[in-house]
Amino acid sequence: MDLALAEARAAAARGEVPVGAVVTDAAGRVLAAAGNEVEARGDPSAHAELLALRAAAAGRANKFLGDCILTVTLEPCPMCAQAASLFRIGRLVFGAYDPKGGGVEHGARVLAAASCHHRPEVVGGVREGECAALLRAFFAARR
Amino acid sequence: MDLALAEARAAAARGEVPVGAVVTDAAGRVLAAAGNEVEARGDPSAHAELLALRAAAAGRANKFLGDCILTVTLEPCPMCAQAASLFRIGRLVFGAYDPKGGGVEHGARVLAAASCHHRPEVVGGVREGECAALLRAFFAARR
């Protein structure tokens, strides 16, 4: 989560919503790390999670990440929750809960749907305070 | 839908699950068209919809597509449904319904969640028979 937080801070410094994501393998090696790049790429789908998942799979030349952990500073939205399932991530760890935009413990609860083909183990609220504080500070500065 | 079906057929010819997607603007101009590229890219998130949305926004240098229609041969999964919302697509038109993997009229029903910030108008079942026949033929040939 330290690295995910660093990616989130770097995203904030670029004017992006501060969310960071890291994919690690079973040995704890970092396969990919990314921050939000929505503004930089002009791409609303350039969420940290999707970028990190794609980079991790590309780096291993294996499109499934069943032995891997996706660690992200914010509860993933429905797009990223479903992407974690499509990449068959073994475990999803996230920091702040997102009642407004989250799609794991809130909203569409994508991974809980009966039709979800692969459900990662989910651990939410990890270093929640630090992760949420980054987002609060970012949005407070913009108001 | 003709162009989306052509993209789906081209995807099948490449060994991809035959799904095609097209983004058109208010004047009916095609901004982007894509077929599934999951196998070719080794990227489980390389669904036709996400590729077409990204290409359409990049081509216009405008990350929102509120005046556009996303036409796809199959009901989008939760990832692509949420992506359509994030790109603020005006209307989503799809062909075959997907009770097993769909996320619009089935499963997580992403766009119906109270927390969904932008809901495109949705029209499902357009040329459903042709769209579904392509998928059935593809999977029958693989069994």
From TrEMBL, chains A, B:
Protein name (record): tRNA-specific adenosine deaminase
Names of required cofactors: Zn(2+)
Catalytic residue list: E49 (proton donor)
Cofactor, free-text remark: Binds 1 zinc ion per subunit.
InterPro entries: CMP_dCMP_dom (IPR002125), Cytidine_deaminase-like (IPR016193), tRNA_aden_deaminase (IPR028883)
GO biological process, one term: tRNA wobble adenosine to inosine editing
Gene: tadA
Main function: Catalyzes the deamination of adenosine to inosine at the wobble position 34 of tRNA(Arg2).
HAMAP family xref list: tRNA_aden_deaminase
Species this chain originates from: Roseicella frigidaeris
Quaternary structure and partners: Homodimer.
Domain CMP/dCMP-type deaminase, residue spans: 1-105
GO molecular function: tRNA-specific adenosine-34 deaminase activity; zinc ion binding
Alphabetical UniProt keywords: Hydrolase, Metal-binding, tRNA processing, Zinc
Family listed: Belongs to the cytidine and deoxycytidylate deaminase family.
Annotated catalysed reactions: adenosine(34) in tRNA + H2O + H(+) = inosine(34) in tRNA + NH4(+)
EC number: 3.5.4.33
Annotated Gene3D superfamilies: Cytidine Deaminase, domain 2
Top-level taxon of the source organism: Bacteria
PANTHER family: CYTOSINE DEAMINASE FAMILY MEMBER, TRNA-SPECIFIC ADENOSINE DEAMINASE
Annotated Pfam families: dCMP_cyt_deam_1
Binding positions for Zn(2+) per the UniProt entry: H47, C77, C80
